[in-house]
């Protein structure tokens, strides 16, 4: 892992949940880390735990949607050889019916999942191409396989990420850079707990952050898309036709899972 993706990895959204799990697994593999997140508490906690494994860690308290995000990332990473970018931050931050919703709220979802993701991917991807090695792991969602009410923009940006990853994979594979869209289903992260999602619906497959992070890193070279947590068949079905039937059926489950407000 270190020869192919080291010596430094950047985890955007690396303080808790799947992001913290990535940090631990990468440190176990001998990579130094730059961890980015907004809240200082969980960021420091994960950084300390990873330092205790003997790796170097830099932290950056940053909202990735802020206009100076790339400049601030550069201030912490310029001069480091970053061989792996994990763009994990991206859970839905605004949930509403579209036409009566707040456009700024939807814009925040787009800014994080599209604008910030593209900026960091381009910034770290170019030197990886020059070096002829590296990895880019973008965290996606089963939501990106079909439209969903009240999270229509979130589902759409996750579809964007997946299609973008496929094109990037084509461009980078001949330069020795692995690109993977890691598609997650429902995963028991602190963000999901805070959002009040009902993850205890009978029959619902709920993954553990450590398991999906490990699965993603194990399959970094199996791009462009890897569906984690046993959700491959669900993803395959959701990508099919006829759309009206599939979208309406999935909507019935989502209505039970999402909070009513
Ligand atoms: N959990 C699920 O059920 C599920 C299902 C499908 C896909 N996913 C995908 O998995 C990824 C991780 O999701 P998650 O549930 O762990 O929630 P998340 O809100 O994306 O949080 C993950 C990490 O990103 C950081 N973060 C979030 N927004 C940020 C921002 N604007 N700027 C900088 N850092 C930010 C968080 O710390 P701070 O909050 O302190 O910034 C945390 O360290 C996302 O891409 C999500 O779409 C999750």
Automatic annotation (TrEMBL):
InterPro entries hit by this protein: NAD(P)-bd_dom_sf, SDR_fam, VLCFA-Steroid_DH
UniProt KW Oxidoreductase keyword: yes
Assigned keywords, A-Z: Oxidoreductase
GO molecular-function terms, A-Z: oxidoreductase activity
One Pfam family here: adh_short
Gene3D superfamilies: NAD(P)-binding Rossmann-like Domain (3.40.50.720)
Domain of life the protein comes from: Bacteria
Positions in coiled-coil regions: none
Family to which this protein belongs: Belongs to the short-chain dehydrogenases/reductases (SDR) family.
Name the UniProt record assigns to this protein: SDR family NAD(P)-dependent oxidoreductase
Protein's organism: Actinomadura chibensis
